[in-house]
Write a structure and sequence with these properties.
Blueprint (H helix, E strand, L loop, with lengths): L12 E6 L3 H12 L4 E4 L12 E4 L1 H10 L2 H4 L4 E3 L2 E5 L5 E3 L11 E5 H13 L4 E4 L2 E8 L4 E7 L2 E12 L6 H5 L4 E16 L6 E6 L2 E8 L3 E9 H9 L2 H8 L9 E2 L4 E10 L3 E2 L2 E3 L5 E2 L7 H21 L7 H29 L4 H16 L1 H11 L11
Parallel strand pairs: 1-2, 1-11, 2-8, 5-13, 11-19
Antiparallel strand pairs: 3-7, 4-7, 5-6, 9-10, 10-11, 12-15, 12-16, 12-17, 13-14, 14-15, 17-20, 18-19
Helix pairs in contact: 1-4, 1-8, 8-9, 10-11
Length: 401
């Protein structure tokens, strides 16, 4: 479809967001509150994504949703924790508390996708300039000088649109990224994560326990439930995901911080890898969230990096809109890329290092890990610096936070 030479006021929408993920909805809310005309298209009906997926929400994500005004609606759906315990192979490790963040914020929250996605979806439905279409597929698009010509299919109807900017929030296999010809670099770990939910009567603490097989996250959920994210070899993960429940619990329980547990959810597994898009923008196109990057689940960074993408891009575009600038201009989009590409790279390398260093049984490395954890325990400044990094409270933050 050829560029029809439309000006900004003639576009059908200012921004098309492909993907109704939490990151896509957050970006839509930020832009919509700035008066930007936004269309979000999502291929699934109902909840976009896996309802059982579990997230560790870091303080920066809470700050973004507080700024939007949606946090009071999300807060009742999550479990708050005020202690993080890190340990290596069951030995004593290091504990983080709110004092390590200056005592002004809770350490974090754990959420289930199926409980918080509907809250954000309902929230954007009340923003007049935001439109959400489910069961709608992107067919193709053409990047032009003054617009993006887009073909989408909705309920078997082909719809042609002209928009100022297309944003890929459509996940690791992003159609937007692939059609734009943006490559990625990265690797697979030879590992898979097995996830499930347990029930146990224990106080809400977030645990990250490192074992030679890989990290094990034990995360508190509402109603005395606990989310498990267990990194194993592919063979181990595929075996235990289908093993009898009793055998599975007998294998898992020795690795847990507490022993009295029952199985309270389905088991799933997925392969893990590391991925960074070679660029986040082209003229009239931007990538956010998993479309732009992916990392090992250790440290719970994934969604939080995407929410920071959304807040950064949202602030830049909303500011450009206030000044009457063309949102698809490359120089505007590059200010987003220059901020987030190196920040994300540092976070991705951090998670990669954690997984590689703490998944080795080599004796000298085990000794080095013990020294590092002891230093974190004893040196308050080092502990605070580490926690601020994990919480996303570092580097250039969006001005509105």
């Amino acid at each position: 479809m050829a560029d029809r030479g439309r000006t900004q006021g003639d576009w059908d929408y200012d921004v098309l967001i492909v993907g109704g993920s939490l990151v896509g909805l957050t970006l839509a809310a930020w832009l919509g509150q700035g008066g930007v005309r936004v269309l979000v298209v999502e291929g699934q009906r109902g909840v976009a994504g896996s309802a059982s997926r579990i997230y560790a929400l870091m303080p920066l994500t809470q700050m973004v949703w507080e700024t939007l005004g949606v946090w009071p609606l999300i807060a009742p759906q999550v479990q708050t924790y005020d202690q993080i315990d890190l340990s290596d192979q069951g030995r004593s490790g290091v504990s983080f508390t709110p004092a390590d963040l200056g005592g002004k914020r809770r350490l974090g929250h754990v959420a289930e996708h199926g409980r918080i996605w509907p809250v954000l979806r309902d929230f954007i439905s009340k923003i007049p300039s935001v439109t959400y279409w489910e069961a709608t597929e992107l067919v193709d698009f053409t990047l032009g000088l003054t617009e993006v010509a887009v073909n989408i299919q909705r309920n078997s109807e082909m719809i042609h649109l002209a928009v100022g900017l297309i944003v890929g929030a459509d996940g690791a296999k992003s159609q937007v990224r692939q059609q734009a010809g943006i490559g990625t670099w990265g690797w697979r770990y030879g590992q898979s994560c097995l996830t499930t939910v347990l029930r146990a009567d224990q106080p809400p603490t977030a645990y990250e326990r490192f074992w030679p097989t890989g990290p094990l996250a034990v995360l508190p959920l509402p109603d005395q439930r606990w989310g498990i994210v267990w990194t194993l070899s592919h063979a181990q993960a595929t075996h235990w995901v289908d093993a009898p429940a009793g055998d599975f619990l007998a294998e898992l329980t020795p690795y847990l911080p507490f022993q009295e547990v029952t199985l309270a959810g389905e088991r799933r597994c997925f392969p893990v890898g590391w991925r960074q898009a070679r660029r986040y923008v082209r003229p009239r196109l931007a990538l956010v969230g998993d479309a732009a990057h992916g990392c090992h689940p250790v440290g719970g960074q994934g969604l939080n990096l995407g929410i920071r993408d959304a807040a950064t891009l949202g602030e830049i575009l909303a500011s450009a809109h206030r000044w009457g600038n063309d949102l698809g201009q490359l120089d505007i989009l590059q200010s987003y890329e220059k901020c987030r590409w190196p920040q994300n790279l540092l976070s991705l390398l951090f998670t990669d290092s954690l997984n590689r260093v703490f998944s080795q049984g080599w004796v000298p490395l085990v000794g080095l890990r013990a020294v590092v954890l002891a230093a974190l325990n004893r040196v308050g400044g080092l502990r605070r610096l580490s926690l601020h990094f994990m919480a996303g409270l570092w580097g250039k933050l969006p001005d509105n936070l």
